[in-house]
Design a protein that fits this description.
Blueprint (H helix, E strand, L loop, with lengths): L1 H16 L4 H8 L1 H4 L8 H6 L7 H5 L3 H10 L1 E3 L2 E4 L7 H14 L2
Antiparallel strand pairs: 1-2
This protein binds heme C.
Length: 106
């Protein structure tokens, strides 16, 4: 019985070390502006002026590196911050979110 519990705990720890589920990360950190589907049709999204991330033409404009930089360092226009830097996320999580954004493309 004890070993079974221990094995379970080890599995959970391994799963957590991998980082939370990418959908969860998206929901928690990005969906408020970009929307659950990436279209950015949320109130905050409209106010911030987000682009439609599901649009193939929009995605073509950004390389993975540019997206990474945008998420990590934020997006600014002159002195106005359009998207805040994702300070709570580590590089691995950001990479997974970029990969997630790529899957939103129609
Ligand atoms: C406060 C609202 C807000 C939040 C939260 C937000 N974004 Fe953005 N995001 C924006 C705005 C505004 C833009 C700029 C659109 C433009 O290019 O004019 C943008 C642009 C982008 C771009 C395009 C790259 C670029 O240079 O424009 C990507 C990719 C992106 N966001 C991903 C994310 C990810 C991943 C998260 C979660 C970690 C996130 N965003 C959270 C508002 C937000």
């Amino acid at each position: 019985m004890k070993t079974v519990l221990l094995a379970g705990a080890v599995c959970l720890a391994a799963w957590m070390a991998q980082g939370a589920d990418v959908q969860e990360l998206w929901k928690k950190n990005c969906a408020s502006c970009h929307g659950p589907d990436g279209k950015g049709k949320t109130k905050a999204g409209r106010e911030a002026g987000v682009v439609d991330l599901t649009d193939a033409k929009v995605q073509e404009k950004f390389t993975d590196e540019a997206m990474f930089k945008a998420v990590k360092e934020g997006v600014k226009e002159k002195d106005k911050t359009k998207m805040k830097p994702a300070e709570r996320l580590n590089d691995k999580e950001i990479k997974r979110l970029i990969a997630h954004v790529r899957t939103l493309k129609k």
